[in-house]
Fold:
Amino acid sequence: MHSHIFLYIDPGTGSMLFTILISVISVAIYFLRDIFVKLCLWFSGRHAEKNYEKLPVVIFSDDKRYWNVFEPICEELESRGIDTVYMTSSEDDPAFKKPYEHIRAEFIGKGNKAFAKLNRLSAEVVLSTTPSLDVFQWKRSKNVNCYIHIAHAADDITKYRMFGIDYYDSILLGGEYQGRQVRALEKLRNLPAKDIEYVGMPYLDRMRQRLDQTESDSKAGNKITVLLAPSWGESGILSKYGAEFVENLAETGYEIIIRPHPQSYVSEKEMLDELQKRFADVPNITWNRDNDNFEVLRRSDILISDFSGVIFDFALVFDKPVIYADTEFDKSPYDCYWLDEELWTFEILPKIGMELNTFNQKDIRKLISECLHREEFRQGREQARRETWMHMGEGARRTVDYIVDHLRFE
Structure:
């Protein structure tokens, strides 16, 4: 007689063990890949690094959508004849179309390939909007004298993922409340004080300049145009309110433009495809994917969004009201989680527009009409400008002044 021993693992335990195994394998692969990259860099660049030419100014852009931040700065650098290398992770970055003499655009690849180049960079100054320097793949190079971060939105600097700006040397801001947030984080984390400079918001200056140079349109019948520009993710308007809300917007009879966040087309493609198919034949709904949002903002009379920074572009530059969604903002992954005070964004929003919630979204036409005609929102926009857009019209000049101060001219 033979005895058989059976090892039984229940499905729950089996799933857990499988998950642990996959996690261990993933960590091992990442560890080995990291060692491999470091060895490649050591063998290929170790000796050349000593003789590598130190660049005066490097701008790093991780995506072409930040060209609106860097364009006015590049033009100021160009006008002063300051040699600059504009490194980008977008092959079709608008910088490549510019006929600059002193600024050279260079595609450095995406992800780890880009960071591998940045990590062995030799430069006097590096300017970037990209957070998490020295936190994940992007490491500080010992051959860079100064890393400068510039804000890419006119709102809280603590809405980055944790430690987003901790290891920059300097930070260029548009409002004093942002500076207070930086100092509070430094104190809590026992970090050395960064150099803070209030330069304003160069990209808002450029948008305002473009607006002043554009003739206003005369709309046929004065039909109201509503722009829906949500963020992506579970807290975004399209995810939270879905097709029902789009249906309610269509029923207002207004011209509706829907401009999803670029990441939605990647992370929420199925949802967007379904919505676009469902409303394909609705005559007053159009979808917008322009890389430059200036024209669609200019054409719109009112903006509906959630926690996207486009709210402030629209309200402060175009001086028009906004409707902001009542979305649950989970602070836990962000720097603001460390601070007790309320985010400036959530304090100022009720002063520049009206809240969209589960109850009033069904009567969106009434909400839009009321929001368009409330005078106090104009006063709120003036307050917001004072608090988050210092030195209006001087942002690019002040930014380059700061860069020049940190260059070591021979």
User: Anything to note?
Assistant: Confidence is low (pLDDT under 50) at residues 3-7, 11-16, 43-51. The chain is about 40% helix and 15% strand. The radius of gyration is 24 Å. Residues 54-201+396-405 form a domain with the Rossmann fold fold (CATH 3.40.50.2000).
